[in-house]
């Protein structure tokens, strides 16, 4: 399945799209230095097909490109980052100067 992850800032979320269909989304709130991921949802028709993982990876890659840190409030995003330590440097608490170093 071809999954494209796009930012939909007017909806404050990243969307995982297959063609014209939205297979899932990850809602966020932005500050000048932080992307707070609050909720992730995958349409039941696409569950178990890697949509959630592709969605989070694409969203975090975009956040990294933009130079932002991440606050993973959403349990799915938080657990995905824990399983993919190469993204741990994006987590706000892991960044130098945040008081957690």
Describe the fold and architecture:
- The protein has one domain: Gcn5-related N-acetyltransferase (GNAT) (Aminopeptidase, 3-Layer(aba) Sandwich), CATH 3.40.630.
- The radius of gyration is 13 Å and the shape is globular.
- Helices cover 24% and strands 34% of the residues.
- The protein has a five-stranded mixed sheet.
- It has helices spanning 51-65, 75-83; strands at residues 4-8, 13-18, 21-30, 34-42, 69-72.
- The chain is α+β, with helices and mostly antiparallel strands.
Question: How would you describe the shape?
Answer: globular
Q: What's the overall average pLDDT, rounded?
A: 93
Helix content estimate: 10-25%
CATH top-level class? Alpha Beta
User: Helix- and strand-based class?
Assistant: alpha+beta
Number of strands: 5
CATH homology group: Gcn5-related N-acetyltransferase (GNAT)
Which fold name is given in CATH as the topology?
A: Aminopeptidase
């Amino acid at each position: 399945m071809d999954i494209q992850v796009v930012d939909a800032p007017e909806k404050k979320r990243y969307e995982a799209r297959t063609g014209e269909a939205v297979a899932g989304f990850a809602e966020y709130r932005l500050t000048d230095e932080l992307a707070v991921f609050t909720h992730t949802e995958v349409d039941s028709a696409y569950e178990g097909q890697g949509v959630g993982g592709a969605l989070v990876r694409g969203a975090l890659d975009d956040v990294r490109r933009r130079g932002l840190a991440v606050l993973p409030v959403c349990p799915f995003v938080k657990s995905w980052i824990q399983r993919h330590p190469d993204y741990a440097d994006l987590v706000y608490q892991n960044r130098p100067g945040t008081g957690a170093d």
